[in-house]
Description:
Layout (H helix, E strand, L loop, with lengths): L1 H163 L1
Amino acid sequence: MTLLRNDIEDVRNTIEDIVDNVNGTIRERIEDIQNTVEDIVDDVTDTIRNNTEEFENTVEEIVNTVRDDIRNDIEDVRNTVEDIVDNVNDTIRQRIEDIQNTDEDIVNNVNDTIRNDIEEIKNTVEEIVNTVTNNIRNDIEDVRNTIEDIVDNVNGTIRERIEDI
């Protein structure tokens, strides 16, 4: 029995040695895994930090580009609106000038028409006055001739009567 005990004791010792070796190996593996996990976590954290900085820089660049594009677009819109306003104002000024010129043309045409009408009326009145004056002169000449004829007749009659006396 002693031999059996010794064998059992040897087996137990061997098993304990094996368990201790397995436990040691497991502990070493666990430590290796823990170290590897810590290294991986550190690497991932560093990568995330680096990527976060890179991402922030990229986002900042994008935001700055978009901001600049918006500023440029706003400036373009402002310039376009200013051009449109200038064109509308120029068109309004031109229309006002056209209207003023048209008004001046109308006034000039009316004044010319009135001058022409007045000249025509003046000429017509002068013609009428000349015609009436000529008619009156002719009538006066006719009356004078008639009176002279009457006076000549009366004188002739008076002479004949005087001669008859």
